[in-house]
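Table S2 (continued). Query chain:
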Amino acid sequence: MSTREETDSTAPGWDIRPAAGTDWPAIWGILEPVIRAGETFTWDRDTTEHQARERWFKQPPGQTFVAVGRGELDGVVLGTGELHANQGGGGSHVANAGYMVHPAHGGKGVARGLCAYSLDAARAARFRAMQFNAVVESNVRAVAAWQSLGFEVLATIPEAFLHPRLGYVGLHLMYRRL
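Corresponding output:
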């Protein structure tokens, strides 16, 4: 599956494809600063590279994928995402996903593109819905992007996330049917 679009003035400057093991150094280069900042993900800020790799790379029907630049950014990994079942057993028909974008490429629609890719991949893997368990409410760009793709905030858990600068903020539970 690829999101490569016709080359025109409106097509994004990237392709999205499944990640390969050789993409790991670039993926870690994206994950590490996001994890260390502690502003948008609930991961421990001292997560090691080994722990991150074990957690980020998924087994089928899940997958890990990357947005790779075209043109002047040809081959540069701009962002990454992962898709997996939100729960096991009777809850395994609902997907969950996460996305991280290199700070130099934020605000360009890469995360939205990764999310759209994961929705298609989740449908292809026969998931019936997608749920985000912990969207930090202060991450307003992400919340707006997910809402633009049909997600709704089902609940907000007050003060469930300790933001390093803002203090305690809520975590949104977001959902959409596929």
